[in-house]
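Hello,

I think I submitted the adenosine-5'-triphosphate job twice by accident. Can you confirm which output corresponds to this input? Input:
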Amino acid sequence: MRLSKLYMPTLREDPQDAEIASHKFLLRAGMIRKSASGIYTYLPLGYRSIRKIENIVREEMDNAGAMEILMSAIQPSEIWKESGRWEKFGPEMFKLKDRNDREFCLGPTAEEYFTTLVRDEVKSYKDLPLNLYQIQTKYRDEKRPRFGINRAREFSMKDAYTFDVSPETLEISYNNMYNAYEKIFDRLELDYKIVEGDNGAMGGTGSHEFIALSETGEGVIVYSNSGKFGATEEKAPVEYILPQSKDVKDLEKVHTPNASTIEEVSKFLDVDSKRCAKAIDLMIEDEPVIVFIPGDRELNLAKLVSYTGVAEHDIRMMEDSEIESIKTKKGYTGPIDLDVRKIFDKRITEINNLVIGANEDEYHYVNANYGRDFDGEVVDDLLLVTEGDKVPGTDEYYKFARGIEVGNIFKLGTKYSEALNATYLDENGKSNYFYMGSYGVGITRSVTAVIEQNHDDNGIIWPMAVAPYEAIVTIVNTKDDDQVALGERIYEDLKSQGVEVLLDDRKERAGVKFKDRDLIGIPLRITCGKKSSDNIVEYSTRRELKNFEISFEDAIRTVLNEVEKVR
Ligand code: ATP
Ligand code: MG
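Support: Only one job matched these inputs. Its output is below.
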């Protein structure tokens, strides 16, 4: 492709709302354009990289025995109502009606769609296991679209679904996909970690997330140095060290003026903050619920979601008026004589002589003890991990890292097949629910992960496998016939040998050409300058930037060698 013909609207200035490198460079390199919040157009160079990622994913899915299909991006509401997710999915779902008032959604994912397809078509154990996938645009009305195509409202996802006869064969299908995902992210040359995930609102019995490491990532993961353990922050179990036990004392109500926070009350009463119970006043599906945890820790919302089975968007903090209406006071909520649903992190039942709100302004109880003075539902672990926590059952401390979730795999078990009554007949003619798995790769988000890990101040540094073009030939001065002739010759030669090559034949200043070349990040570069009359060119790579003067034949050979490595 000739740059004189290529639609590549590069920008000199940094776009204002671009917070991270990938967003900035995708815009500046003329690869994407914003249409509306979280909705983007992919321009020629950007779309080529997206298609390369798509093809890598497609090849590895096909190698793993998955079969590609394509279901509509528009999905009928009925199947979502059957599974219960029409309401449960919440405000992220784009809903619409046709002219006859029939309801649809723009698919945010496709568990229901695939399950009902297979339910209606696959009848016998002889047809199992089955592994189907699609690469289809997904729609999610994200609360906070940001970082360009990293968290968009319209994005491309590969989603796959497996159907099995038993938990044991699901395990095989799952491991097969796990391995395929490793191959995909290796081929994208990403630096990533695989960690245990939280099944959350998806349901099911286990999951892994593939996290491309990046300081700009929204995901936090924890892992052990030995590599034995890795999990998302949401999933990570917390081993809490209880404060030293004291003799159980009598309950007493005390005046605690201006001490509504843990810090204040712990200081005022001179009691370790571990012993001061923290109350979190919540509305869960519009029902008041108070959650209690040790005062020195934070609530892990994902663990509460798992326990209650209520999605995050249906959980919120109480408003002041709601706190009043359950007959307590903000900052002084406690479980004694409070007639609402109460959920306790188990540690609250194990720490004695607690300081706990008395539901009156400026009053706390001291020496409150679970069982004797109050009770309620107990959950093993509702705590968020923090720096200094040990990996349970080991001598290692958790390490923390940030990253971008590029893939996610779930064992769903029979959650969706039961909800949608999807069964097959086994050898004995008995009907059984399918054991399912679901597997996602963010195609467009992967582009951002690649760029976050591969850029410098001047632009993108594409790895060969996902670069929009593999090589670029720059004619420094288009008024010089020798330079033009040599550039054209190299370009035609590389093209005829199957190299994806750009020719910068624009009538621009050399500086502009070099700047653009760095910005768009093409890996292999040949520069036809002053020594073109002697058939000498400069060869360099985008990553190393070092220039070598070599004969044009050697430059062509080097490019062919490099290209061969990724073919
Ligand atoms: P996140 O926690 O980032 O919201 P998710 O758990 O909602 O992700 P999944 O439902 O597992 O995501 O979707 C599968 C994959 O699709 C994710 O691993 C991610 O790569 C991609 N993805 C999810 N949401 C978006 C989005 N808003 N924009 C771009 N890609 C996305
Ligand atoms: Mg999400």
